[in-house]
Amino acid sequence: MQVENQLNGATISNFEALTRRVLTMPQGPGRSMIAIAGAPASGKSTLATDLTTALQKAGRKAQLIPMDGFHLDNAVLQERGLLSRKGAPETFDAEGFIVLIQRVKQGGAVVYPTFDRARDVSVAGAAVIDADCDIAVVEGNYLLFDEAPWRSLAGLWDISIWYDMPESVLLERCVQRWLDHDHTPEEARARAEDNDMANARRIIGARLPAEVIFSG
């Protein structure tokens, strides 16, 4: 996948180099905020987990905050006719997520929701970022998304990372996700192409500049 030059930050394909980049970033006021954004199935969740672990091993008090806790409930999506589009920007509580990130950046202990994939439901108050945590690693599809209200997040990141992945790989991974949930091959491909890849192309087409492009 070729990304327009004006959207490209420094391209990093080595995980150790990415970790060093974060560890050597200037310290500003409040908690340091690292954004890891990408399309569905790009690998951003795994990258965020690995980066958080590496920072902790380096002696930093880092914590991972996934965006998925702000999924709207299926009952709300059903009422709005959006259940089949779950994962699209309008199926999240974007304003609530933005408020959370503002609070996390300010510092102090902050409670936030998580997402239970087995039950397909958000769980309120399920996690806490401790007051002594000095780096928050945030991962999600829409952290660098140039649509309102998501674009207001851009000024809150100390380092923004875009996980670059070819669309052909994204499609293959999305299909496999649905196969793993006991869908038939035909159902899995339909779900992947009709929803996941529609979201992926929307995210890729409207993404804001990232300081780092990770292609690992």
Report what the structure shows.
The protein has 216 residues and is of the alpha/beta class. It has one domain (10-214): Rossmann fold (3-Layer(aba) Sandwich). 36% of the residues lie in helices and 20% in strands. It contains 6 helices and 8 strands, in the order βαβαβααββββααβ. It has helices at 15-23, 44-57, 74-80, 94-106, 167-180, 185-205; strands spanning 10-12, 32-37, 62-66, 110-116, 121-129, 135-140, 159-163, 212-214. A hairpin with a 4-residue loop joins β4 (110-116) and β5. The longest helix has 21 residues, at 185-205. It is globular and about 50 Å long. It starts with 9 loop residues before the first strand and ends with a strand.
Q: Quick gist of this model?
A:
This protein has helices at 15-23, 44-57, 74-80, 94-106, 167-180, 185-205; strands at 10-12, 32-37, 62-66, 110-116, 121-129, 135-140, 159-163, 212-214. With 216 residues, the chain is α/β, with parallel strands linked by helices.
Helix-strand string: EHEHEHHEEEEHHE
Structural class call reads: alpha/beta
Q: Share of helix among residues?
A: 25-40%
Number of helices: 6
Strand order of the largest sheet: 1-8-7-2-6-3
At the first level of CATH, the class is Alpha Beta
Mean pLDDT: 91
The description of the largest β-sheet is: 6 strands, parallel
Question: Tags for this entry?
Answer:
6-stranded parallel sheet, disordered N terminus, 6 helices, alpha/beta, two-stranded antiparallel sheet
List the helices and strands and how they pair.
Elements: E1 10-12, H1 15-23, E2 32-37, H2 44-57, E3 62-66, H3 74-80, H4 94-106, E4 110-116, E5 121-129, E6 135-140, E7 159-163, H5 167-180, H6 185-205, E8 212-214
Parallel strand pairs: 1-8, 2-6, 2-7, 3-6, 7-8
Antiparallel strand pairs: 4-5
Helix pairs in contact: 5-6
